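Handoff note, outgoing to incoming analyst
You'll be picking up this chain. Sequence as last confirmed:
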Amino acid sequence: MPTRWCRSPRAGSPGATLRSRDRGCRYPGCTHTRFVDGHHVEHWARGGATRLSNLVLLCRRHHRLVHEGGAAVRVLDDGAIVFADALGRRIVDAPSTRGSTDAIVATHRAEGLRIGPGTAPGRWAGEGLDLGLAVSVPCASTSVREGPSTRPAIAAPSG
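Most recent structure output, in case you need it:
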């Protein structure tokens, strides 16, 4: 598992211990186990120590998200690692999207659902894209109106 670390990933080193503890990106719902980085929860430039209690493994995408302010991470007193979005709302673990679909199929059968290849057939026959139609239809539904906008205002985030 490639991990960027300030020290060599020898057995017993902080990098090896962090990899052993986290086993991959700790962001809720993320399953990446390769190309992960050790993230200082309290940034080292602000006095955060390079110790296991202040570190968490994040994949490159989620590491960038945290550093750019799209998410925050903190460690609770009991050692639990929690994430919040940019508005401070806690991000909870999502169920895994990997693995067997047997449980889903069994649930559907128990509920009397019969889902198969003909459940939602498409009408596309493989013909090429009519770009003129694809552009003209959305453009025709929007017209220039005089006066104030009829679109709802988007509230700025508080805080």
